[in-house]
Design a protein that fits this description.
By secondary structure, the protein is mainly beta. The chain has helices at 45-62, 153-157, 168-180, 188-192, 199-202, 222-232, 436-442; strands spanning 5-6, 18-19, 22-23, 31-36, 70-76, 92-94, 108-123, 131-144, 150-151, 166-167, 182-183, 235-240, 247-249, 252-261, 267-273, 279-280, 286-289, 293-304, 311-324, 337-343, 346-351, 363-370, 373-378, 384-386, 391-401, 404-414, 419-421. It has 3 domains: 5-231, Collagenase (Catalytic Domain) (3-Layer(aba) Sandwich); 235-324, Sandwich (Immunoglobulin-like); 337-442, Immunoglobulin-like (Sandwich). 14% of the residues lie in helices and 38% in strands. Strands 1, 3, 4, 5, 6, 7 and 8 form a 7-stranded mixed β-sheet that branches. Strands 13-19-18-15-16 form a 5-stranded mixed β-sheet, covered by helices on one side.
């Protein structure tokens, strides 16, 4: 059987079960699927749906701890001439490769595409210390090839399958393994190089090649079950608990709530990694971040003692927590901003605020005063300001974010070719965007 094809993700050969790097989001369960109306002349129409449904559900039947859910939504009428599409968002099964997409020698191909959204990481089953990254699936289509002699399970059982014939249920179960995100136990190159010698890998549904006239249409092997459970179950995740806020100023306390499926009756070992070097073994911990930064939170759950056997699951939320300080100058700057003369009465403002932690500045406003009159406000990071006419102006940079607000002011004498640095920071005595009242409260005069 063929390897599944998918965009930007390629699995390396492995001597144990292998994953494609794609996984369905549990929020999308039950995962919907359709059948094309390009049907095969080898089977009755009703059987063509039944065999797919049985093969899809074989993964949940033999690995109930994965708690997979799929829903058949019917035949796509008027779709007969088409083939797999990675962008239509409709997971579709095609008989007899209507668009002639599959290569020679392939019994079936699964075409899958990622959303690009990161899901989690898992340790590599073969290489110690290697971490595999997984992304959510956006679309997956299964295409059975042309010019293959297909047989039903009953025909195979009755001995009617001829040499080089294949059972549709066995192939469909294999392709739906790709659909769920499982890759081959061994690849062809492993076999040819004598690097895949364990009989357990050959008997798995997800072995790279199908068995002609297989008499086990859709039974999963131990390798298949271990592979699907590593992806889907038992399942552990977490949410930010209660009134806890994951964005804010330091010190920032964030509380987490463990969520699991399929772990009932199991003894759990839990390890939280908060991203700042601190860990916890509590079930629902709270953690205080004291240093500004974006933090990825990881949860490792090891379990044993229930019907699912021993299991390990890792759940990771990238850049989940944003802890900030009030805006401040970057390390090599004397103030929040400088300026440079451009031409005539136009000056370039140069924002030099610290951007070492992404997201800690989300509001920017420049207020320009002439005397006590607010003459203009500009919302841009480093704008060019046309003052209109010569004179003495006060420019105030207001910055805000989850860690608080800050402002600095600088007096600019327009009409002189000059440049300068902003004044010593003043305390932000008001809210961002209060115009004259706010600007006047922080003005510091300095000739450029």
């Amino acid at each position: 059987m063929s390897a599944a094809l998918f965009i930007a993700l390629v699995s390396a050969p492995s001597l144990a079960w292998n994953h494609m790097g794609l996984v369905w989001k549990r929020d999308d369960f039950p995962v919907p699927w359709y059948m094309s109306d390009y049907l095969s002349p080898d089977f009755e129409d009703e059987y063509q749906v039944e065999v797919l449904d049985r093969s899809m559900n074989a993964w949940n039947r033999d690995a109930p701890c994965a708690e997979l859910e799929a829903e058949y939504l019917g035949v796509r009428e008027g779709h007969w001439i088409s083939g797999a599409s990675a962008s239509d968002g409709m997971n579709t099964v095609y008989y007899d490769d209507p668009a002639e997409q599959n290569g020679d020698g392939a019994l079936g191909v699964t075409y899958s595409r990622s959303t690009g959204e990161f899901a989690f990481t898992l340790p590599d089953p073969d290489e110690a210390g290697v971490i595999n990254y997984y992304f959510y699936t956006a679309d997956s289509d299964v295409v059975f090839s042309q010019n293959v002699s297909w047989y039903t399970a009953d025909q195979i059982e009755a001995g009617d399958c001829v040499e080089n014939g294949y059972g549709i249920e066995a192939v469909a179960t294999h392709e739906f393994g790709h659909y769920w995100g499982i890759d081959h136990t061994c690849e062809e190159i492993d076999v040819n190089n004598n690097e895949c010698t364990d009989p357990a890998f050959y008997s798995a549904t997800m072995f790279w090649s199908g068995t002609p006239c297989s008499n086990a249409p859709n039974d999963l092997d131990t390798q298949d079950v271990e592979a699907i459970l590593a992806l889907y179950g038992p399942y552990a995740s977490f949410v930010v608990a209660g009134d806890s806020d994951r964005f804010g100023g330091v010190p920032l306390e964030v509380c987490f709530e463990l969520q699991t499926k399929g772990t009932e009756g199991a003894e759990l070992e839990i390890l939280w990694s908060f991203g700042d070097g601190n860990t916890s073994t509590e079930t629902n911990p709270c953690h205080t971040y004291t240093t500004k930064g974006q933090y990825t939170v990881s949860l490792d759950v090891d379990g044993s003692g229930n019907e699912c056997g021993e299991f390990t699951y890792t759940y990771r939320e990238a850049a989940l927590v944003l802890a900030c300080e009030a805006p401040q100058p970057s390390a090599d700057s004397a103030g929040l901003f400088t300026y440079e003369w451009v031409e005539d009465n136009t000056y370039q403002m140069v924002n030099e605020a610290d951007l070492s932690v992404y997201g800690c500045i989300d509001r920017v406003q420049w207020d320009v005063f002439k005397g006590d009159e607010l003459v203009q406000s500009v919302a841009a990071w480093s704008p060019k300001i046309d003052f209109g006419e010569p004179g003495e102006y006060e420019v105030v940079l207001n910055l805000g974010g989850p860690g608080g607000i800050a402002a600095e002011g600088l007096t600019i004498t327009v009409g002189e070719e000059s440049k300068g640095c902003s004044a010593i920071p003043a305390s932000a005595a008001g809210l961002l965007g209060l115009g004259m009242a706010f600007g006047a409260a922080i003005r510091r005069r300095r000739r450029g």
